Structures are given as C-alpha cells and as structure tokens.
Amino acid sequence: MVNLNKSGPKPTVLDLFCGAGGLAAGFQDAGYRVVGGIDYAEAAVQTFRDNIVGAKGMVRDLRKGDFEDIASFVDGEIDVIVGGPSCQGFSTSGGLSKAAGRDLTDPRNRLFNNYIDIVDHLQPSWIVFENVTGLLLYNNGKVALDIVQAFNEIGYDLAPMILLAADYGVPQLRRRLIFIGNRTGSAIPFPAPTHGNPTLWKNYSLPFAHLSRIGAGGVGALPHVSFVDACGDLPPVIEGGEVDGVPYSQPASTEYQVEMRRRSTEVRQHAAADLSTLDRTAAQTLLPGQNWTNLPKDVLPARFAKIRQYDATTLLKRLRDDFPAYTITTKFNEGTTGAFIHPTQARTITLREAARLQSFPDHFVFAGSAAQIRQQIGNAVPPLLARCIAEAMLPTVMRDVYDVEMADLRDVVAVEIDRHEVDPLKLHGARRKAKDQQAQLELV
C-alpha cells in the first residue's frame, strides 16, 4: 500500500463546464493534478485560472463540435473528466442516447451530446458530473435513464447517487444528483457521510429516497456545520457595504473557520447587496427561522396571495445561526428568491459568506462583477464535497490508471454495476466499505 504524495503519480483531471472551479479545487486538494478547465464564461475561466494552481483555462462554447482544439489544450492523456452540462442541457423530449434516437435539432441536447462525444474522444478512465435532483423527474425519468444508456454505449458504467452537502461538512442543505462512472469495470465508490442530523427530514417524504439512503446522520456522525460555525468570525457589514482586503479582526473559533482561513490573512469580497423595499422590510423585522408568512399581509405583493404556505417555506426566510444554510443559488442577494437573509444583520448574505457556505476558502478570490461572481458561486459544486468524492475514488483510480495499490482515504459506499439491471437508478448492491476493508455493511 502507498499513500499519494508530491513525488508520486497523480491522476490528471479536466474540468468541463468548469465555472469557478469547485470540482477542480476539490480534486486538486485530494491529490489529483488538474490540467485545465473549459467554460464559455470569461469571468469564470479567469477565476479558474487565478485559483486552480498549475491549471490552464479555455474560454469555449462546448456546443460547437470538432474537439481537436480540446485535445491540443490538454496535451496528453486525461484520467478523469469532471463537470457536465447543467439541467438546461437536457430537453424532456427526443433522445440522448443513440438507441433512443438522438434529437440533434434541440440545442439543449446538442450540448449534452457534444459532452458525450468529448468524453468518447478523450477516453478518460473515470467521469464525474453533477445535476439537480429534479433531473430524475424529467420526462418521467426517461432523461436520467437515457444518460446512463448514452454512456453505456461508449463503454462507461455509470451510477447516480443523491448527496446532501451538509453530510460532508459543507454548511449547506444542498441536495444534488452526482453521477460517477468508469470504463474500467471497477465498482463505483461514493463517499460515506461524516456528518448528519437524524431528525432533519423527520416530517418530510424525500423524493428518490432510494438514491439518498447513504446519508441519514447515523451513529458516530458529526453534527452539521451551522451558519455561525462557518461565518461567525466575519466582521459585520451593512446593506450595500463591503469589507475587502482587511485583516481578520478576531481569531477563528471553529475548525471550519480555520479551514476557510487556510493560506489567507485577510477578508476578501465580503460585500452585501442593496435591497428592494420588501427585502429590506423582511431583513429588518423577521426573527431567525421566520419567513414570508410571518410578515404583515399589507407589505406583501399581490402575487403572494396565490402562494401555498407549504410550497414556499424558504421564501423570504431568515437563516438561523445554529443551522446550516439552505441551497445557495445564483440570486442569494435577493430575499424574495430563497433563504438568504442573514441571521442577525439587516441584509442578505454577502459574496464571501455565500462562498464560505459553498466551502470556498477565503484565499479563493472571484473575478468579474458582483452578478458574475454570484453566478460562479451559486452554480459551483462545493469544493469540500468535491474533495470527499475525489478521495473516495482515488484508491480505485490509482489502481485502474497506474496499477498502484493505496490505502483508502475514507469510508466509501461501493456500487456494483449490472448493465442488465432493468432499472439502474435503484442502485441495488450499494454497500458501505470501511477504511480497514474489514467490515462490509449492506445499506437498506
């Protein structure tokens, strides 16, 4: 058994649709060598170049075919491709796989089909990409099944799993569908959770529970990281104000804050947005955990009368200090779009608070306008979640790519792939694998 070190071999990674580089940052932290990232947004690619050490960035529209420029860009063999089209990259009609009949006239399908073709062209051993859980609803699940089939057709086994970012130390209740695949025939490892809250979903019926069964806050799980755990050391900021390039005014008080300050000596991009009248009213009056239903009806626009209370529980919601944030989107500056009001200050969360809630460390500085930075932060895979995925995969990737055996870095849930499975989304055969490789526990 060996441990990966600076002098040893490192699997190479290409990040497609890279954005700011959340996936790349996590894989780099886990010991992979990130060769480059490709995205159509210039500001995002600049952020990627500035923060992913040793990696190149390419501004390119991946809807355009002919991938020789991409092959030249990576200039060598790629072991892992991470990243993939967003949920807008799939239509709910037509086909994605050849067997289903590819609908090449739909520009959304063209993006995904080009992604498939890039993977087929570069032939990485492993692939990882993320999407919203709602993808499983598209066309009654046909799109998700088509994705699995499309990768099968070019030689890749693919397994999906819904992961909750908070279960991996990210201070955010962000549920995302993660696909991991390979063309080596190896079992597919997902990271076993390290954190949890067994009462979190107590009164809810989660959709696709069979795809999120590896996290539930079991025995020995650490508590979820809260908002104050993540951001409590940052200085106060008024609405429309900014703190940038200022040394920390107080010491870090939690492990998470220490991690966020790694390689940084000052607060950067701690900027709060100006608010609408309604957002300002909510930020000045709501108590922690309250939402739009706790506001006087006469301050709410007429459209709120049509909203069912149980359908919009995070709308105009004030966060709680002692609880993780909800999903960080690209519009976290607006209280009317989600749960983005600071727990104690009369404003929505800042760029830096959102970055920390996504697990971007303070030394990670974003390029572009405030709107472009919000886009980069909200669309990113949390780097800490990406690192957990990368660490779970690394021993198997090292064996597949370099024929090198190394000790497991963390507990994993291994998924055995059977292409003859009628419904591969049920993920029969997932099992927990301990780091010492002695205990194997069936998940039920």
Automatic annotation (TrEMBL):
<dbReference type="GO" id="GO:0044027">
    <property type="term" value="P:negative regulation of gene expression via chromosomal CpG island methylation"/>
</dbReference>
<dbReference type="InterPro" id="IPR029063">
    <property type="entry name" value="SAM-dependent_MTases_sf"/>
</dbReference>
<comment type="similarity">
    <text>Belongs to the class I-like SAM-binding methyltransferase superfamily. C5-methyltransferase family.</text>
</comment>
<keyword id="KW-0949">S-adenosyl-L-methionine</keyword>
<keyword id="KW-0489">Methyltransferase</keyword>
<dbReference type="GO" id="GO:0003886">
    <property type="term" value="F:DNA (cytosine-5-)-methyltransferase activity"/>
</dbReference>
<keyword id="KW-0680">Restriction system</keyword>
<dbReference type="GO" id="GO:0009307">
    <property type="term" value="P:DNA restriction-modification system"/>
</dbReference>
<dbReference type="Pfam" id="PF00145">
    <property type="entry name" value="DNA_methylase"/>
</dbReference>
<dbReference type="InterPro" id="IPR001525">
    <property type="entry name" value="C5_MeTfrase"/>
</dbReference>
<dbReference type="GO" id="GO:0003677">
    <property type="term" value="F:DNA binding"/>
</dbReference>
<protein>
    <recommendedName>
        <fullName>DNA (cytosine-5-)-methyltransferase</fullName>
        <ecNumber>2.1.1.37</ecNumber>
    </recommendedName>
</protein>
<dbReference type="InterPro" id="IPR050390">
    <property type="entry name" value="C5-Methyltransferase"/>
</dbReference>
<dbReference type="GO" id="GO:0032259">
    <property type="term" value="P:methylation"/>
</dbReference>
<dbReference type="InterPro" id="IPR031303">
    <property type="entry name" value="C5_meth_CS"/>
</dbReference>
<feature type="active site">
    <location>
        <position position="87"/>
    </location>
</feature>
<keyword id="KW-0808">Transferase</keyword>
